# Entry
Amino acid sequence: MSAAEFSAIFLAMLAITTALRLLLAVRHMRYVAAHRDRVPAEFTDAIELPAHRKAADYTVARVSIALAEIALGAIGVLLLTVGGLLQWLYDLLAGWFEGGGYTHGVLLMGLLTLLSLVVELPFTVYRVFVIEERFGFNRMTWRTFIADLFKQGVLAILIGVPVLLVALWLMHAGGALWWLWVWMFWLGFNLLALLIYPSLIAPLFNKFEPLRDEALRQRVEALLERCGFRASGLFVMDGSRRSSHGNAYFTGFGASKRIVFFDTLLERLQPPEVEAVLAHEIGHFRLHHIWKRVAMLAAGSLAFLALLGFLVQQPWFFGGLGVESHDSAVALVLFALAIPVFTFPFSPLLSHMSRRHEFEADAYAARHARGRDLVSALVKLYRDNAATLTPDPLYSAFYDSHPPAAVRVARLSARTAPASTAAA
# Structure
């Protein structure tokens, strides 16, 4: 393949992917707006029309800003590749570091990360301090926002730079199978991150306190006993410090597993509903969804690194993307820019798998808690988080990791209906 041929293929795929993403966003906005004035029948008893309209308006506002991000992102990819910006930045840094090497590569990727932050920052600020503020969700102060940026930058330097240096070294010293060594290192790093995140990284951004509600604690511990789930602790996170959105999750693995409740979640849900939500989260663990996702990540990263191992030997890969240098850091950047262009059309496959896991975790929760409590909790979360009840089906297939609200509630209701009938 020639550089010109690959360039034509890349540009065609970039145009197709960008057009598809824009089309999906516009469809979603129109679909949600068209269903704004009528609450779906299955939710009329729990969600009033003003709340439904608020969710529709919130969704449209968020997707509207996403339209600009999609367009700007495509322009950025064009500029960096066929536009020659990446090569210009490489040459600029090469003039400062004539010897090139690892320092050059790290600074190149650091500069690109900084440029990306500068471009994304206005969108982030608008989302947090305009959209979230307008709909009553934002509790973030400017001080907290700036502190978060600073902490993220420090972590990127302390963790990202050594990881990048090791990856670049392996690409040079690993021989023809360097991609296999990089994969082994990357997989090990991700597992280590899962292990240390709960106790070392998460506390840098939020406060975690033991669950103090004794009645709720006893209920949760009884559920853990029924499910055969062991955790290192039950914690409440100060999610209200940044947002009024509520959630719950467990993190870590092995002895470091911990269950975390947002304080905003505990404020809204009754103890049986909290129990049902937690049963759903435990279901993900007991049904091995976490390890299945880790396995998928491992297989996917191995395949992509093997592909990169082939591409770095092909002059048309670099030339077709507007770069003359065959430097390892440049190859990593080009790969990161090009892969989403070619893989986005396959997003529904990943979304389908994720939604299937959600259905399975719901079924698990209905067996170990009460299904109607999970339904009640979900409806409250949909209402309080202003989650749209009427997403465009095609948009949802591409983007939503969770099933549409109506489908999910209908399945749970059908599962709990026989028990309700029998009890009657």
